[in-house]
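Quick log. Single chain, no ligands specified.
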Amino acid sequence: EVLYAWFIPWAIHAGLQNRWTSFAAAALGCVLVKEDAFLALLAVAVTLALTTGGWSRTQRLLVFGAPLLVAALNLVVYYRYLVPRLSATGTSFYANYWDNYGPTAMTAVIGMLSRPHDVLIRTLASSFFTKVIVPHLYLPLIGWRWVVGIVPMVILYGSSSNEQLRSFGIYYAIVLVPFLVLGAAAGAQRLTGWLRVDRHRARVAASLAIVCGALLAGITNAGYSLRPWKPEVAAVPRILRSLAQERAVLVQSGLYPHAGYESRVQLLTKDTLRDPRYAGAAILLAPRVSGYPLTPDELAALSRFPVVTSTPDGVLVVRSAAR
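-> predicted structure:
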């Protein structure tokens, strides 16, 4: 999914340059990588519609019609055919991220539509306005044409019951970055355009505003920053190699992104714990790493299972109950 963050700016750039074959390739890449690419491609389409003009009917179809239709079909196929096969209970993945509006994905959608005031309040109180947009000095609000398309995603993440998602602290929100960067640049340019100075000085002032925003993020807890891996995370590949003879391995969510793509390695959830296919599986646990959707008490209970091995890196490998 790392490529997802690259396909979005590629699609925007291709659209701005009227390179429609390249745009179609980027849009297809988005659909192939993410089941919910519809929202990101909608944001791209809205952005291009507001910042470019003079399109023919074919170009409008290429930007709005084809990518959004393919993305919508991809979403339907994913939830209609793949989720029942991949989920032990047949329930939608991550539906519990919005269980404050309803227990299932559909009831959550209905709940959000019936309680727009609650959705708005939670979104406005989310980290989008206190951390995400701060490094851009709120300039994207002035360059609004570049960011209005991401409003559905901001509302969806900001109103979530999952605090990590609501704080925009995980990679799902990375697709917002190109829109915010472009919006900040457009906002700074528009803001400095109001100054009665020549174009050169206006550009210098706009550039300084953007740099100051980045520096501000560096001295506060706003924005994004690179952090070194925890020892538990760095140890995952080595530990999995030592468990090469295990038929199945369930990995705690905070460790799972570093666990590779072997079919025997699965995410540790309540569903996979109940799934008879993973009875007797080895379980990788790390108390200092996120275990969502399992609670700390549930992880503590799992740590009392028979121990396979423990490491000085803080990773505990236990054996799940056989059935």
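The chain has a mean pLDDT of 86.
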